[in-house]
Design a protein that fits this description.
alpha/beta, Rossmann fold, six-stranded parallel beta sheet, two-stranded antiparallel ribbon, about 15% strand, globular
Length: about 210
C-alpha cells in the first residue's frame, strides 16, 4: 500500500506572505496596504493620492514580489517542525498558486527554511491539480491544507474523498477570510500549528489502524 499524502499550500500555511508584502509595498513602493474592511483588490492605495490601485497594478506588484522579494518570507510559527513531523508518516508535496516558472524558486525557498518537498504550481482553482497529484501518487489517504476557502470548495467538488483542513496562519487576515469549514467544504478550521498538527496526525492514523 502506498503511503498517505499531505498536499499543503505554502503562503500563510508554511510561510508568511501578506505581512512581508505589506512591508515591501509601504517601505519601497509608495503603496499602503490596509485590509481593514477591504477586499484584497481594494486594500492597496497610492500613498501620494490615496487612490485605489487598478487591478493590473495589484497584479504587477504581486508578480514583482514573487520575482524579487521572496527572501522576505519567514516561516509561520511551528510550520517547519510541523510539516517535517508529518513527513515522517506521509509523503508531503506543496501545491502553490504561482506561475510555473516560479516552481524552482519556491522549492529552493522552502528548502532554505528546512522544508524539502516536491512543489507543484497551479493557477486558478486547485481541485483539478489535486486530482492530478492524487492520480500520480495513489496514496492510501490524502489530506489537503490551504488558507483560502475557494480552494477547499474546488477540492470538495473535484476530489471529495480527500480530508481538508482550512488553515490560515496569518492573524491579520485569518478573521476576515471566508471559512471553508463553516461553508461545509473543509473538515476542520485550525489556524495554528500547535493545534493543527495533532488533528493532522489523527487523520493520518485513521488509515493505519
Amino acid at each position: 500500500m502506498n503511503r498517505p499524502l499531505i498536499i499543503s499550500d505554502c503562503d500563510e500555511v508554511l510561510l508568511h506572505m501578506v505581512v512581508p508584502f505589506k512591508q515591501w509595498l509601504e517601505e519601497d513602493q509608495g503603496v499602503n496596504f490596509d485590509l481593514t474592511d477591504n477586499t484584497f483588490l481594494n486594500a492597496l492605495t497610492w500613498q501620494e493620492s490615496g487612490a485605489v490601485l487598478e487591478q493590473e497594478d495589484v497584479w504587477h506588484f504581486l508578480r514583482s514580489f514573487f520575482d524579487t522579494e521572496m527572501y522576505r518570507q519567514m516561516p509561520i510559527d511551528g510550520a517547519v517542525a510541523g510539516i517535517n513531523r508529518l513527513a515522517e508518516q506521509a509523503d508531503v508535496v506543496i501545491l502553490t498558486n504561482l506561475q510555473d516558472k516560479r516552481r524552482e524558486m519556491r522549492a529552493q525557498q522552502l528548502a532554505e527554511h528546512g522544508v524539502h518537498a516536491e512543489v507543484f504550481t497551479n493557477q486558478g482553482p486547485k481541485g483539478p491539480a489535486l486530482k492530478g497529484i492524487l492520480d500520480r501518487y495513489q496514496p492510501s489517504r490524502a489530506i489537503f491544507i490551504d488558507d483560502l476557502a475557494q480552494h477547499h470548495k474546488s477540492a470538495a467538488e473535484t476530489v471529495p474523498n480527500i480530508s481538508r483542513l482550512h488553515f490560515c496562519g496569518e492573524p491579520i487576515i485569518a478573521g476576515q477570510i471566508d471559512c471553508a469549514h463553516q461553508a461545509g467544504h473543509a473538515h476542520a478550521r485550525i489556524d495554528n500549528w500547535a493545534h493543527a498538527l495533532p488533528w493532522l496526525l489523527k487523520e493520518l492514523e485513521k488509515d493505519l489502524r
